[in-house]
Design brief:
It contains eleven helices and 15 strands. It is of the alpha+beta class. The chain has two domains: 269 residues, L-amino peptidase D-ALA esterase/amidase, CATH 3.60.70; 119 residues, Ubiquitin-like (UB roll) (Roll). The strands form two sheets. Strands 1, 2, 3, 4, 5, 6, 7, 8 and 9 form a nine-stranded mixed β-sheet that branches. The protein has a six-stranded mixed β-sheet with strand order 13-12-11-14-10-15. Helix 7 packs across helix 9. It starts with 7 loop residues before the first strand and ends with a helix.
Length: 406
């Protein structure tokens, strides 16, 4: 990431950019928590999206994929939590379309400019009457101050809301990016199992915005893992309404690179929030692979270590078990020479090339007591590197997921 732009973090979350409004409400999908959110732009916005790679795709994924093909513009997104509307057949599709139509009618929008998203328990039907009534009740109350309520309403097992907004100069004007995300469990690479919504007042066509999103997503949400499970409902959407007044960003321009860098920063920050909030997690783990023969090799090795339950449990137990780390690199599928590998934990060397063990158990124990752990693996095979983010695996994770539906 080429960080030659000055990003200022600001308040406002998803509604920080000009022209965006939002809100959240309890629509009685769940017993007590807010469970329905709407995000809208006061003018039609260009839209880009990336969706789950899971073959069992939830109804809102199927509907939203159709919608982004029908129209390059989006004016609203309706999101519910507590129920994934996944593996629900024809009824689930009808319910997702009903959410689209009701939102469009409540906000006086063309139906093709409304997207839908859901998260929660798989295989249960939505209490659709409650959902549609919630949409009707919420729509008139959307406002600039509603970002936080919306972020709360999309949470499931998250322990905290995930919001971020940044402002920066671009092409002679000031541009803002706002965002919110949810994710805690069932998180894996390949679109990172979660929901993410990004807004900006920059002027960007949908095809250019799609290229930016794919690039930034590949270095952020596609590089987090909590438990190796890829969900039925993964979705990241970006809306750009152009109200900042900049000339439309074109590919190959300095503004293209600058905006992509800013978007990447926002998505990486959200991705790290999700990894840190993994169900039952006590530590954020960053896996850094350097010295790889290619970026693909570095990414594959980092992914393998981040997905290793043995590595994650060792970090939780504050055990500097470097053998589990090199083993995970070994089954990653890349071609490398294990004799050349060195490993460190928060810059404390534990293994040098030719299997020279330099582990100081007492120092390692101190290092692993930190909440943020960086595992650095130097393959000494080239000049490429990659980062992945994950968390420790705890007894609390088992407890949460053993009783998820209750």
């Amino acid at each position: 990431m080429n960080r030659d732009i000055q990003l200022d973090t600001i308040d406002g979350g998803i509604t920080a950019p000009a022209g965006f409004i939002a809100g959240g409400i309890h629509a009685k999908i769940r017993k007590k928590k807010p469970d329905l959110a709407i995000l809208a732009s006061t003018v039609p916005a260009s839209v880009a999206g990336v969706f789950t790679t899971n073959k069992a795709q939830a109804a809102p994924i199927l509907v939203s994929k159709i919608q982004v093909k029908r129209s390059p513009l989006c004016s609203a997104v309706v999101v519910n939590s507590g129920n994934a509307n996944a593996c629900t057949g024809e009824r689930g599709l009808n319910d997702a379309w009903a959410m689209v139509r009701t939102t469009a009618a409540a906000l006086n929008l063309p139906e093709e400019q409304v997207l839908v998203s859901s998260t929660g328990v798989i295989g249960q039907y939505l209490p659709i009457d409650n959902v549609l009534q919630g949409i009707t009740d919420l729509a008139p109350d959307l406002n600039v101050e509603g970002a936080h309520e919306a972020a709360l309403a999309i949470m499931t097992t998250d322990t905290y809301h995930k919001e971020l907004a940044v402002r920066f100069p671009l092409g002679g004007v000031t541009v803002t990016i706002g965002s919110m995300a949810k994710g805690s469990g069932m998180i894996a690479p390949n679109m990172a199992t979660m929901l993410g919504f990004v807004t900006t007042d920059a002027a960007i066509s949908n095809d250019v915005l799609q290229k930016m999103l794919v690039s930034a997503n590949g270095k952020s949400f596609n590089r987090i893992s909590v438990d190796g499970d890829t969900s039925t409902n993964d979705m990241v959407l970006v809306m750009a309404n152009g109200l900042a007044g900049n000339a439309p960003i074109v590919e190959g321009s300095p503004e293209y690179d600058q905006f992509t860098d800013a978007l990447e920063y926002v998505l990486i920050t959200l991705a790290k929030m999700i990894a840190r909030d993994g169900e039952g997690a006590t530590k954020l783990i960053e896996v850094v692979v350097t010295g790889a023969a290619s970026e693909a090799d570095a990414t594959a090795a980092a992914r393998s270590v981040a997905n290793s339950n043995l590595v994650k449990t060792a970090v939780h137990g504050e055990d500097a078990n470097w053998g589990r780390i090199i083993t995970a690199v070994g089954y990653s599928g890349i071609d490398f020479d294990p004799d050349l590998v060195s490993i460190s934990l928060n810059e404390l060397p534990v293994l040098l090339p030719n299997y020279e063990i330099v582990l100081d158990e007492e120092k390692a124990k101190v290092v692993l007591a930190n909440e943020n752990i960086v595992i650095t693996i130097d393959l000494n095979q080239g000049e490429h590197r990659a980062n992945f983010w994950t968390c420790d695996l705890t007894k609390e994770y088992v407890h949460i997921n053993a009783s998820y539906r209750s």
